[in-house]
Design a protein that fits this description.
Layout (H helix, E strand, L loop, with lengths): L11 E11 L4 E14 L2 E11 L6 E12 L2 E6 L4 E6 L6 E6 L2 E8 L6 E9 L2 E11 L1
Antiparallel strand pairs: 1-2, 1-10, 2-3, 3-4, 4-5, 5-6, 7-8, 8-9, 9-10
Protein name: DUF6314 family protein
Organism: Ruegeria alba
Pfam families: DUF6314 (PF19834)
């Protein structure tokens, strides 16, 4: 089994498909788009562009940016403003991490069993949040 062992293995263009199971509203949302990871100062910059499909509403276009930096045993992922978000351990089939953002809680589970296909599953809970977001990535 091949696993990613270095941040450079993520560089490039990825297609993504996302499903969001919103338990508060009972809706399943879908998104599709792409992510580009490009070399930048200190690591990679992750830029995502998606189209979100919500029942009964016109498609919504969204973007997000994260900073990926080499860290102990893996990758330190930061928000665009530099605040730490979570750590991605490399060399494991299914690494995970937790991000606390009171009053909300974010649990990440990565799956590299079919690398270079990979998946990220976020389980989010809080007073106004209860959803699971699963994103599948494949090379463009």
């Amino acid at each position: 089994m091949t696993l990613p062992r270095d941040i450079a293995e993520f560089e490039g263009d990825w297609l993504l498909d996302r499903v969001i199971d919103d338990r508060l509203t009972g809706q399943k949302l879908r998104a599709e788009g792409g992510a580009t990871l490009r070399r930048s100062e200190g690591g990679l910059t992750y830029d995502e562009q998606v189209t979100l499909f919500m029942p009964g509403q016109p498609p919504f276009h969204g973007t997000r940016r994260y900073l990926w930096r080499p860290g102990p045993g893996g990758i330190a992922i930061h928000f665009e403003d530099g605040r730490f978000f979570h750590h991605l351990t490399l060399g494991q089939v299914a690494p995970g991490d937790h991000h606390d953002c009171p009053p909300d809680s974010y649990d990440a589970g990565y799956d590299f069993a079919r690398w270079p296909l990979w998946r990220v599953r976020w389980t989010v809970k809080g007073p106004r949040k209860d959803y699971e977001m699963v994103t599948d990535f494949r090379r463009r």
